[in-house]
Amino acid sequence: MRQFSMVSLRDLLVASGPTLLAVVAVAVLAYLWVDPAPPRRLTMATGQFNSAYEEFGRQYGRLLARDEITLTLQPSLGSHDNLQRLVEGKADIAFVQSGSTAEGQAEQAGLVSLGSLFTEPVWLFLREGAKVAHLTDLKGKRINLGPEGTGVPRLFRQVLDANGIEPGELRIGSLENTPATVELLEGRIDGLVFSSAPEAPLIQMLLQTPGIRLFNFAQADAYTRRLPFLTHVVLPRGIVDLGRDIPAQDYHLIAPTATLVAREDLHPALIGLLVKSAGEIHGKAGWFQQQGQFPSPKYSEIPVAQEAARYYRDGPPFMQRYLRFWLANLFERLWVVAVALAALLIPLSKIVPPIYVWRVRSRVYRWYGELRKVEQALEGSGPQARDSLRAGLLQRLDEIEEHVNHISIPLAYAEELYRLRSHINFVRERVHGTIDRHGMATMSTASA
């Protein structure tokens, strides 16, 4: 029966209640505050219409959707525009071209790199009739560099400066990529400059358009020495179309590197997921890269996020190697909770047992106080007064015994209860006068 159980469940719950509440509170705080859940929505600043940035943004969106994360794409002018959106908090992540900012400026703005993704060659497309063999031949030509927010104007001005050419010596246009391409094909401008991965549809189209030729940076190595954020890449002969031999020669190009940049407050779990997605999208062999060359923590002046650097060094977190993202993240967060609970439970586990014992025994011990009051009343009265007090004291003892008989106590502490009942009988005998305070029989009893 429940009244003869070895443990009092009610007392155990009461004794451990404050501890359980403290444990739950710490667990909730650890779960929500120490390592909050990753957001399920991200905003990415991409690039212009028909750009490689736009296409890669769609690929990131498809990969993140597998883990129930919605990626909102923000079209932009390009690299500088993307940097501004990150700084203003309008985007969480964005594509940024190397050379667009300095390390100190990036740190001050609270930006971190998640890795370099691919090289973005400088594509200078010209009409065949423009007769440009060297960059100095661009003087007086109508060349479109794109809007200032793209980063190309700043980049190409540095290239011009390396050749001793003042921007004012060219007729520079600022059209976006698509309308500038139309102007070139219509012959209303002499050339245009892109800085983009070869996957961009406009690049693919212009490489195969008759009457349009690509400028060959024969001094590419010299440019990389003068402008360290550039690398020398080669567009191999026939890479566009082997059957038609397009292009008909190797082209030497100079190329900055596209970097995936994030705000430094981006959730650490999402950083790992984004680096993983970058590996799936950019890790294959391409026109200018070997398989596995990208993504990489190198080639960027923006400091690499600690979580991204750890991913490049050690690979994905242990849980994410075997579980889906959200389940792995849940277990990783529960691990934090488990550590917090262990730190709390170890000291509290030493407090609960004494509290439980005290609660159980207090049901018995409180009646010893009542017994003591009866004894004090007996001892404080004179021999003549005891006869008049005896009936009242005996009635009080009967009341105490009635209450004690209804005490529910675990079997492990039954000895305490039976000892109390024997002590009640002891005091009753004293009230009757059959024994003294030491338990010895009185003279009248002995005579009888």
From TrEMBL:
* Parts of the chain that traverse the membrane: 12-34, 334-358
The entry's keywords? Membrane, Transmembrane, Transmembrane helix
Name the InterPro entries on file: TRAP_TAXI
Q: Which region is the signal sequence?
A: none
Transport as a keyword of this entry, yes or no, is no
Report what the protein is called.
TAXI family TRAP transporter solute-binding subunit
